[in-house]
Structure formats: structure tokens, C-alpha cells
């Protein structure tokens, strides 16, 4: 889904149904241009993703955020996401720690 302001793209969100996931639908990416952050676009995209999740007959959504990304963690926690665990992984060859968050839809 694309967020637009006056016909100009300012952000996007990607959501996918993950068959058999105990954590529900995956909110894979959420990005808002820096100059538009803090104005509600991110929350509107989360709301749209939650509606899409309901249409998929799912009642839970999850996401992963890098453990070092304090601004994103604060954003998700402010918007009702609950911490649900840590997973180690890689971005290319770089080891990373991801925090999993869940939210009811």
C-alpha cells in the first residue's frame, strides 16, 4: 500500500499473509519519508494493514524491527504493538538482532 499526500508518494507499507504462522500476518516493511514522519501517515498505514489482515480472516499481525532501531521501537510501542521475542539473523553477512512485535487486529 502506498501513502500519498496531494498525489505525491510519502510512504509505503508491505503486508503478507504467512501460512501457518502463529504470529499472524506479517507487516514486512513500513517506511515514511523523513520530512513526513510524526504526522500520522505511519499510523494510517498500520490501520490499513490491519484492515487488510481482517479481510484475510486473520486476527493477529506481527513485525520485526532491528534491536538497535530505537525510534522505530518507540513508534510501534506507542501504537499498541506488544514485544513478543527476539530472533538472531543476518542482513547479508552482518549479524543482527530482531525484535518481534505483535498486535491484535
- CATH superfamily, by name, is Gcn5-related N-acetyltransferase (GNAT)
As for the number of domains, it is 1
Count of DSSP strands: 6
Strand content: over 45%
Q: Specify the CATH class.
A: Alpha Beta
Q: Unreliable stretches, pLDDT < 50, 5 or more residues?
A: none
Q: Categorize the overall geometry.
A: globular
Note the total helix count.
2
In N-to-C order, the SSE pattern is EEEHEHEE
Mean pLDDT, rounded to whole units?
A: 95
Structural class designation: alpha+beta
- Gap between N and C termini, in Å? 17 Å
CATH architecture: 3-Layer(aba) Sandwich
Approximate helicity band? 10-25%
What is the CA-based Rg, rounded?
14 Å
Strand order of the largest sheet: 1-2-3-4-6-5
How does the major sheet shape up?
A: 6 strands, mixed
What name does the CATH topology carry?
A: Aminopeptidase
List keywords for this structure.
105 residues, alpha+beta, Aminopeptidase, six-stranded mixed β-sheet, 6 strands, globular
Chain-wise SSE layout:
Blueprint: E1 2-5, E2 8-16, E3 25-32, H1 41-55, E4 60-66, H2 70-78, E5 82-91, E6 94-104
Parallel strand pairs: 3-4
Antiparallel strand pairs: 1-2, 2-3, 4-6, 5-6
Structure description:
By secondary structure, the chain is of the alpha+beta class. Helices cover 23% and strands 47% of the residues. It is built from two helices and six strands. The chain has helices at residues 41-55, 70-78; strands at 2-5, 8-16, 25-32, 60-66, 82-91, 94-104. The two termini are 17 Å apart.
